[in-house]
Structure formats: structure tokens, C-alpha cells
Amino acid sequence: MVRQSETPTSHPNSATNALSRRSMLKGTAATVFFTSSGLSLAACGGQTLTSTGSASTATSGEVVIWDRSGDLFQVFDATIASFNKKYPNIKVRHVAVDVDSKLPTTLTTGVNVPDGAFYEDNNLPVLTSHYYDITDWIQPYVKDIVPFKLRVNTQNGRILGIPWDLDPGLLYYREDMLQQAGIDAQGIETYDDLLTAAQKLQSKFGAKVKPIHLEQDPGLTQLWVNMFANQQGVSMVDENGKLQIDTPEYLNVMNFLKKVRDMNLGTREVYFSPGDIAAIEANQVAFYPWAVWAVYGADLLFKKTKGLWRAMPLPAWKKGGSRGAVMGGSSFIIPKKAKNPHLAWLFYEHLVFSPEGYQAVYGPNKVYPGGLNTSLPSYLPALSKQLYQNSPGLGNQNLWEVATGTVKDISGNYFYPKWYNQAVSYFGTDVQRMLDGQMTPEQVLKQASSDIQTKLVARS
After folding, report:
1. What is the pTM of this model?
2. Chain centre distance of CA 355
3. Strand partners, 63
4. Residue 459: pLDDT band by 50, 70, 90 thresholds?
């Protein structure tokens, strides 16, 4: 998810930063780790956590929290006041840093380590030996965390991160163009239906209209393809680390993307780059299958087409199939060498799991008068009541209702390998070669699998 204070060009082509973000349920991941909430859990520093995971208000000290500068820093900063109502003797020193570049070095050297930090989900597996094990502390909440988010924060059966946001995949579409072409959006139930609708739009408006967005950035392409794969219940590796790229599920995705290209139905641009926005504003793009955070464009970037867009669940790969998926995400980690890990836990517990915390983050605030609508909380009780207002960029459509309606179908069977970012040079790049007409779908999957296996997996 791209932060609204970031430009699209901050999205990387490099493997080291493959995910940049504006950063009921299938599966059993949540219940696997759940134990009785009646336990008394011992914390660091001689503190004792209660059966709800909280420490007494007598807890005191200073906690150092790192977040990226920008909009989310301001949103998280605004939660400190309500936190201090609960814990008046805990001073929160909130520091804006370049987390991606500074955190790995800091954790490795152990010098000036913060007590907690924001981190992208794709980066989580790289430095797991440096994270504090919060499995016991988080137990009262695990049964109510979306399985996908619990899975990506779990390594070797231990929970090492606090799940934060959930980024459902959606299909954004131009309602006015569909109406003019006589297309009922609710009739787009499968990706084959999407191709048919795109053809109909092109017949109506001419060859300049290439209705479906095709991503051009390799890093975002890999993230995007994995959204489609997650929709089918798979990820790049299984729970044992075995590659799953050269599989029928990924082939479905490659075949679809190639059809969009071969049928001349795709506008190929980097997500919200100047060329992408120009094509959108020129009425050349009518379908944008992407994460919920693409609402940022409709709300704040698009001028001529603002208010003309709508959102719906992703089409299914086969009729009646899942229409839920995730694209991206972030969490919070507590370093193993933190001075006050228990205080960091209390801060994140407040921010993520308490109504005062998640309402302050997602509800109307000084940073976002209408609320933060580019993701959802990953804590199920927080989804029970609409937190942000309807989107003006979507004609005041209730985006909250659309996005939360897909959560029950999001597969929890998802694993980030340690080499995920490095794989962009192979997988993300090979998908782009296919869109250039240089490789077939089968060749992409076989070549990327071979390269990743020999150059990344075997050396990890």
C-alpha cells in the first residue's frame, strides 16, 4: 500500500524494496495458536501482564517507537494521547526514521535499538532472529486476528510481530463507462467475464481504450501476481518452503495477463505514474484490479474522473470461487534487544487491539478528515463497525462495506520467504518479459522457479 505522502515513483524496481505501501475466515491459523486467556503472562523487566495481556497503569518508563515519516507517522502519533490516559507514567518517544534502511543495520549491530518499529510484511522473515517472541503476550487476541496476518507474522510456530493492517484486493471500475456500454458490473463474476466486458468497452469507445491496467514495475508486478495467487489459496512457497510458482494457480494468472496483452485490452503503465494517471484521465482505463489502497488515486490524484470510479470484489478464477485476496501489508516488531519490550507491547496493544487505538487510526482525524480508508484493521472486532467515511472519489460509495465483505474469503495459507525481495529480479522481471512478448507463461514459471531455486533457495 503506498502511503499518501509518497509518490508512485517511490515504488521500487529493485528486489530489496519490492513492497512499498500506503502501508468468518477460511483456514485454521488463528485457532492453532490460541490458548486460554486466563493465563498470567510474565513480561520483561519484572512486569507482569494480566490475563488480558495488559500491564497495570503503574508501569512506568520510556518507550522508543520508530515509524516512517509522513502521513502514517502523524496518524500513529495522534494515538499517544489516548495511550497516556491509560498509562500516564509511560513516555512515548516517537521517532521518524527511514525504517527500511536503518532498521536492519540497527538490529544487526544492536546499537541504539528502538523498542518497537513499523515494518513491511515482505521484510519480516529476513531478520526474525532479532525479534522479540510475543507469542504469549498476544494470545488473548489471536483468535480474532485475520489468519493471513497471523500467518505472515509467525515463524517456526512462534509469533514475532504484531499484525497491523489488512489490504484486500478489489476491482476498481468506471461505472459511467460500463453503463454507457450496457455492462452490468455485477455480472463480472469471473476473469473471463472481465475480458468480455473489456472487449465490449473497446467496441463501444474505440481501440484507444485499453480497459484493464497492466502493471509495468517488476516489484509491484510480483506483489500483484501474488494477490491473484493468494485468491487461489497459494503463495510463492508452501509452509515447508517448497516453491509453488510453477503450478496451475500461477499459470492461471500468467495466462490471464497474456490474454489481456494479446487481445490488446491492457494499458501497461507503472502504478499511478504520470503515464498511468494520464491514461486514466483520458478515459482509456476502466478496470483496475488492485489493493484497496488504490482508492488514493480516486480520492486525491484523479481530477477529471474523480467520483466516477466504483469498487467491487475481485472476479473469481472460476464461477463461484473465492473473490477475496490480499495485496501487501505491514506489521510492528519489537526487537529482541529492546530496553523496554513490555512497554512497546503495551503501546501496540493499545494501537491495534483497543477501540480507542484503532478508532484513532482509522476514524476521522486531523490527518484524514474522512478517516484512513486505504486499508482495514486486521483485528476482527475492529471490522464490526464502519470506521472511515464513504469515499468521494468513488461517488461516496461505501468502500468499507465492499472491502470488509471480502475478508471472510481471504486465504490464510500464505508465506513470505526470506528471499522474497530478491526474487523480483527473476519472477517480477520475467513476467514483464512475457508482457514484452519475449516469454510464454510456461517459460516464465519454469525459468523463474529454476533461477529462484538455484540462486536464492539453495544459498539461503
Report:
1. 0.89
2. 22
3. 92
4. confident
